[in-house]
Design a protein that fits this description.
The protein has 466 residues and is of the alpha/beta class. It has four domains: 130 residues, 3-Layer(aba) Sandwich (Rossmann fold); 164 residues, P-loop containing nucleotide triphosphate hydrolases (Rossmann fold, 3-Layer(aba) Sandwich); 75 residues, Orthogonal Bundle (Helicase, Ruva Protein, domain 3); 47 residues, Arc Repressor Mutant, subunit A. The protein is built from 19 helices and 16 strands. The protein has a five-stranded parallel sheet, sandwiched between helices. Strands 7-10-13-6-14 form a five-stranded parallel sheet. A two-stranded antiparallel sheet has the order 8-9. The longest helix has 30 residues.
Length: 466
């Protein structure tokens, strides 16, 4: 993909200029560069044209008969804020420039007009409009996204996940959440709790890989005073603390094998005995566990108890990796950008389309967690109000999508047909330098189908490239 915004090769321009010879010359130049140009001689004609035509950029002389260029700027800002206005004037003073910008002009050029500078200004105005449209699309998508509590996404895998979670939340059965690291397993566990009948009771999470066996046993089950050397006071375990609510055991696959039968007994008996104690306490806890490991493989390798696996795996929820979620990458990126921008007090509006293309093309081995770290870094380092490719980490900015190769016999490592199609279409688009017309011919797709697929992947439509 090119690193700059691909602007429409045939944009619609409205030129308001009362100097007929200059208007003809500018219109001819811009037409030669592939744009469609309509010229009018007065401000009134310009306003009338805007009422009935859809244009991409307005170019207006500052001094016009009747309605002047400043009033045109104000009118466009009020009625068509998505359309940038370029002001042309023979009076290139600072006061004039400030007046034009205050009236809503995007840019300001002085006469005599340098044609190359005019073309650059038009190109920048079109990119500016593309940026605003992309930001609007992402914000709208975030607002209407059929999320599930803190989960965000509208891809088919996520919609299937939401449907499953809605049913899982109403159950009290033990639930096992699997998925790669960084896919949001704790968020899913919290969503199950918040949507279920136990939502007013405690939700307690513990990472089974984050502490040694003796400490984990004490955390889960509690201990009595004197149970071990440092047990100077009694401690209530997390099972008792979560009574009536939900206990989330993250990274259950890393629980020491010797501790697993004690957990199994608690799940079977619904009673817990503190370390060093002789009395049991009845508990009513919904257990949700999560792991990035393949527990069936762990069972076969005798690193995880089979009976505990079956006790945990009453309901199985498998989370999709970020690379299989298409344009959800951009929805999540916009959410994270807004969060970090607000927290840091920086006026970051969103992503440039070029940065968005980089995010979509990357494979995200670290999943949502990696994307969140990437956006936090970008917000902290950017010097502009939009995140561009240069603000991204080098491994994402310089990432080159690999060719589609089936190089594994392991079903867990193979990609879905939708993911293979996505990668191939983006690879073809990259090979033809972003030219969608050529890409459609190579793929033997009509343009509407290609645009629909690109929109699904989160790639901004930027025109019928020829």
């Amino acid at each position: 993909m090119p690193n700059r915004v691909v602007v429409p090769p045939s944009a619609s321009l409205l030129l308001a200029e009362d100097d007929a010879a200059l208007a003809e010359m500018l219109a001819e130049w811009l037409t030669q560069k592939g744009h469609r140009v309509e010229t009018v001689a007065t401000g009134n004609e310009a306003i009338a044209a805007l009422e009935v035509r859809d244009v991409d950029v307005v170019l207006t002389d500052l001094s016009l008969h009747g309605i002047d260029g400043l009033e045109i700027c104000r009118t466009v800002v009020a009625r068509r804020p998505d359309v940038p206005v370029l002001v042309l004037t023979g009076h290139g003073t600072l006061e004039t420039a400030i007046s034009a910008i205050r009236a809503g002009a995007y840019d300001f050029l002085t006469k005599p007009i340098e044609l190359d500078a005019l073309l650059v200004a038009v190109d920048r105005a079109l990119q500016h409009r593309a940026h605003r449209e992309e930001i609007k699309r992402l914000r709208t998508a975030l607002a209407v996204s059929e999320g599930f509590d803190e989960l965000v996404g509208e891809s088919p895998p996520m919609k299937q996940l939401y449907d499953l979670l809605a049913r899982v939340a109403q159950s009290d059965a033990s639930t096992l959440i699997t998925g790669e690291s960084g896919t949001g397993k704790e968020l899913v566990a919290r969503a199950i709790h918040e949507r279920g009948p136990r939502k007013l009771r405690p939700f307690i999470a513990v990472n089974c890989a984050a502490m040694p066996e003796a400490l984990l046993e004490s955390e889960l089950f509690g201990h009595v005073r004197g149970a071990f050397t440092d047990a100077k006071t009694a401690k209530t375990g997390l099972f008792v603390q979560a009574n009536g609510g939900t206990l989330f055991l993250d990274e259950i696959g890393d629980m020491p094998l010797s501790l697993q039968p004690k957990l199994l007994r608690v799940l079977q008996e619904r009673k817990v005995r503190p370390v060093g104690g002789s009395t049991e306490t009845a508990i009513d806890v919904r257990l949700v566990a999560a792991t990035h490991r393949d527990l069936e493989e762990e069972v076969e390798q005798r690193r995880f108890r089979e009976d505990l696996f079956f006790r945990l795996n009453v309901i199985h929820v498998d989370l999709p990796p970020l690379r299989s979620r298409g344009s959800d990458v951009l929805l999540l990126a916009q959410k994270f950008l807004e969060h970090h921008a607000k927290r840091s007090g920086r006026p970051i509006l969103g992503l440039t389309p070029a940065a968005a293309e980089k995010l979509v093309a990357y494979s995200w081995p670290g999943n949502v967690r990696e994307l969140q770290n990437c956006t936090e870094r970008a917000v902290a380092l950017t010097a502009f109000d939009r995140i561009g490719p240069d603000d991204l980490p080098p491994k994402i900015r310089d990432h080159k999508p690999s060719n589609v190769i089936v190089a594994s016999d392991n079903p867990a490592e193979l990609q879905s047909l939708e993911e293979v199609e996505r990668r191939y279409i983006l690879r073809v688009l990259e090979a033809v330098d972003g030219n969608k017309a050529v890409a459609a011919r190579v793929l033997k797709l009509d343009r509407k189908t290609l645009y629909r697929k690109l929109a699904h992947y989160g790639v901004h439509r930027s025109g019928d490239d020829e």
